[in-house]
Design goal:
By secondary structure, this protein is of the alpha/beta class. The protein folds into two domains: 7-187 and 227-254, 3-Layer(aba) Sandwich (Rossmann fold), CATH 3.40.50; 188-226, no CATH class. The chain has eight helices and seven strands; from the N terminus they run E-H-E-H-E-H-E-H-E-H-E-H-H-H-E. A seven-stranded parallel β-sheet has the order 3-2-1-4-5-6-7, sandwiched between helices. Helix 1 (16-27) links the parallel strand 1 (7-10) and strand 2 (31-36). Helix 3 packs parallel to helix 4 and helix 6 (192-205) crosses helix 7 (209-217).
């Protein structure tokens, strides 16, 4: 017996981890709602690529997730268009590297809003329908920085710790409703966000970008290799399977051994 048709919303899904997850779901036959803050014309080639590998529907939903109202409305729009929302992947995130005394408050506020507040708003919008149907999957893309700290990343580390706490709390609340809630905690994944961090870290530490990669970014990862976005996507797909129905309220590290130390 084949699995029923599923609809997934992946926030921040026009690059990096989010795009890899959206592509994996498309390949599996999901209806996929793609989200970013860009105008649709700017990412038309990405949407076309996803439609090229999909047997389900692909829709693009523009929303700035720094706005809580927009985050909640995003879920409502997806449900209105697709009729259901079975899988929610909270992946959207932004980053800023600076010493705490120099950290711009506006950047702090935006990082918290995009990476933590939006996960709350989308989750509260998604849970009622999932509970009514007795099936749902919520995956929060946190970070090794949700389990460990690094200097010069106060907002990001605080946010990812918050995402882990939100994951555990919601998992307990919906444990008897057929919904699982988990956090994936990647180490350094080679994405546009990480590429920008290399530039920022080079300025902070007065190092070359190659030195930043070797001495700072990959130093915590015993494998000395970047995680690939497709690895995260495969894990997300597994968490959405019925074989993962007993995995909930936990963090799953995929970090090259970083948090083993």
């Amino acid at each position: 017996m084949s699995e029923p048709k599923r609809t997934a919303l992946v926030t921040g899904s026009t690059s990096g981890i989010g795009l890899a997850i959206a592509r994996k779901f498309a390949e599996l036959g999901y209806d996929v709602a793609v989200n970013s803050f860009e105008a649709e014309a700017e990412i038309a080639h990405l949407i076309a690529g996803l439609r090229g590998c999909a047997s389900g529907r692909i829709g693009y939903y523009r929303a700035d997730l720094a706005d809580g109202t927009a985050s909640h409305a995003l879920v409502e729009r997806v449900i209105a268009d697709f009729g259901t929302l079975d899988v929610l992947v909270n992946n959207a995130g932004v980053q800023k590297v600076a010493a705490v005394e120099e950290f711009p408050p506006a950047d702090w506020d935006r990082i918290i809003a995009v990476s933590l507040d939006s996960a709350f708003h989308t989750t509260r919008g998604a849970v009622p329908g999932m509970a009514q149907r007795g099936w749902g999957r919520i995956i929060n893309v946190a970070s090794a920085h949700g389990l460990r700290a690094s200097p010069f990343k106060s907002a990001y580390v605080a946010t990812k710790h918050g995402v882990v706490g939100l994951t555990k709390t919601v998992a307990l609340e919906v444990a008897e409703k057929g919904i699982t809630v988990n956090a994936i905690c990647p180490g350094y994944v080679w994405t546009p966000l990480v590429a920008k961090q290399v530039t920022d870290q080079a300025k902070v530490h007065n190092l070359s970008e190659d030195e930043v990669v070797r001495q700072i970014m990959l130093a915590p990862q015993p494998t000395r290799k970047f995680v690939q976005p497709e690895e995260i996507a495969e894990l997300a797909a597994y968490l959405c399977s019925d074989w993962a129905r007993s995995i909930t309220g936990t963090t799953i590290s995929i970090d090259g051994g970083w948090t083993a130390k």
